[in-house]
Write a structure and sequence with these properties.
This protein has two domains: 105 residues, Immunoglobulin-like; 257 residues, Zn peptidases (Aminopeptidase, 3-Layer(aba) Sandwich), CATH 3.40.630. It is globular, with a radius of gyration of 20 Å. The protein is built from eight helices and 17 strands. The N and C termini lie far apart (61 Å). Helix content is 26%, strand content 26%.
């Protein structure tokens, strides 16, 4: 049987350049109407018993080529457990070699989170006591923008993920957060639900997710540069969510992402917004310190540079929400590599650890919800 490679499925992305003997040359396909690319996800058939070397030839032209050194490709035979495999980046080419022991093997940039799993999650959580569902609008491809609400407290908390669809760790984090919030035996969740109302958007970018994009929606738009002036034509996803935020207000917000280069979990804040106050900023810094104290899956040393006073980009959601609502607003970044401070040689950063971090974030929020 000849080797067969396929990416024609929900979230798939790869193009075969050539298969010569035991070498498979590939390219990642650009996001539609965009030059962004880095996400890949494909399946391999017909190679059982062979040792193959895969080469992604255009890795050097990707959105974040500085993210490839130290990166490890993920692979799975059951689409449940995604292990890491040694990868090499040299001369603009990402390569990895594996001995294939099964009829089907799947490879991906990170453990995928399909739109079908998204719908399963939304359906499962909506059926839990105290949870309500609202379709905030539709995407350019006509997919629903789902929002789940839970809790009856006065503080308005917004958690939202996958503005950048290839950052699938973000929805794994959301799955963990939702599971904790609906656990009726969880004392922390009970306290949070009594003091806050949570509005949770598991996937801000269904079109990009289904299309196998890294960073953009169906129109080639980076949603996290649209929060100052979203439009129905370019960014209906942001427009629908921001309109609902205007209705509820926002006291605390977390925008969940993945970072290609930094091997750590970290937070980015809203330094540089016009209405910055040390009092509001201290609430963000306090959250970060408490989170670092609570779990080895978070750290404070690595992260992004802070914006200078008055120089914050208000097209980004974290800055826009802090400025618009006076919210304690933040971006959580998780690695495509590993959280090196607490590394896992077999799985690297993984869905299970995303959920652990989500639980720690909610525990931290519960410890200071009265101060927000």
């Amino acid at each position: 049987m000849s080797i067969q490679i396929n990416a024609a499925f929900d979230g798939g992305n790869i193009r075969v350049v050539a298969i010569e003997g035991d070498r498979v040359d590939l390219e990642i396909v650009k996001d539609h109407l965009s030059d962004f690319y880095q996400w890949f996800h494909f399946r391999l058939a017909g190679a059982k018993g062979r040792t193959l070397t895969f080469r992604i030839l255009n890795a050097g032209g990707s959105a974040y080529p500085f993210g490839w050194p130290g990166y490890q490709t993920r692979w799975s035979t059951d689409r449940e457990l995604w292990r890491s495999t040694d990868s090499d980046y040299s001369g603009g080419v990402l390569s990895f070699t594996r001995t294939i022991d099964t009829d089907l093997v799947w490879f991906a940039y990170f453990a995928p989170y399909s739109m079908e799993r998204h719908h399963d999650l939304v359906t499962r959580i909506t059926a839990q006591p105290g949870v309500s569902h609202r379709e905030l609008g539709q995407t350019l491809d006509g997919q629903p923008i789902d929002c789940l609400s839970v809790g009856e407290g006065p503080r308005q908390v917004w958690l939202y993920a996958r503005q950048h669809p290839g950052e699938t760790m973000a929805e794994w984090w959301i799955e963990g957060a939702l599971e904790k919030l609906v656990d009726l035996d969880d004392r922390t969740a009970h306290a949070l639900r009594s003091k806050a109302t949570f509005h949770i958007v598991p996937n801000m970018n269904p079109d990009g997710s289904r299309r196998g994009h890294l960073r953009t929606n169906a129109a080639g738009i980076n949603l996290n540069r649209e929060w100052h002036s979203p439009t129905p034509e370019k960014s209906p996803e942001v427009l629908a969510v921001r309109n609902r935020m205007d209705e509820t207000g926002v006291d605390f917000a977390m925008d969940v992402h993945g970072d290609e280069a930094i091997p750590a979990n970290f937070l980015a804040g809203f330094e540089g917004i016009p209405s910055w106050t040390d009092e509001l900023g201290e609430k963000f810094y306090n959250f970060a310190r408490r989170l670092a104290d609570s779990t080895p899956e978070f750290q404070l040393d690595l992260g992004y540079e802070k914006s200078a006073p008055g120089k914050a980009n208000l097209s980004m959601s974290t800055n826009q929400l802090a400025e618009r609502f006076g919210a304690v607003s933040m971006t959580l970044e998780m690695p495509f590599k590993d959280h090196d401070a607490n590394a896992d040689a077999e799985f690297a950063w993984s869905p299970a650890r995303c959920k652990i971090l989500a639980h720690a974030c909610l525990d931290t929020l519960a410890s200071m919800i009265d101060e927000i």
